[in-house]
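Incident review: delayed structure delivery

Summary: a single-chain prediction request sat in the queue longer than the usual turnaround. Root cause was a stuck worker, restarted by the on-call engineer. No data loss occurred. The affected request and its eventual output are reproduced below so the record is complete for anyone auditing the incident later.

Affected input:
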Amino acid sequence: MRKIPTLFKRDPENMSRVLPEVNPAAQWVLDGIGFATRKYDGTCMRLDEDGQWWARREVKPGKPAPENFEPVDTDEVTGKTVGWEPVEQSPFVKFWREALGNPHERRHVGTYELIGPKVNGNPEGETGHVLWWHNDAEILRDAPRTFDELREYLRDFPGEGIVWHENEHDMDGRRMVKVKRRDFGFK
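Output delivered after worker restart:
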């Protein structure tokens, strides 16, 4: 799980916003390659090939990594390292346990989004904790790709944003790009 690049360049005056300039690493999206899915607002979990569950963890520069942390990528700009820690030591373990019995959770190897009442303020409006397998994310066939069209599309969008995947058969794959509502200043 690497940090997914944003479709547009960040505004150096306000890094929480994007500019109408494509991120060179994301040009393939504007070239019409790939497909869009809804980005759910929760926290990422992973089920590995050995049946072990992991929680996404971010470690700030200068801070010690937790025990058994598996680093994946370090952001060159912020110095933050993202990776995985065993779910049992995650602050989300209680909600993960609750989610294990939900009807959406199919226990496929891959990544999931843990959403629910105690995760990120529950913007998804779930009544209980749920694990959504990322491969089951809603496909957005009508998602535009230009800056102005995306700004309008996301204004009243019901999710956190959009993730483009290069390959429909490899949604946990290497090339993904995202854009969030908050990148345009929407809450």
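Verification: The chain is about 10% helix and 35% strand.
Action items: add queue-age alerting; document worker restart procedure.
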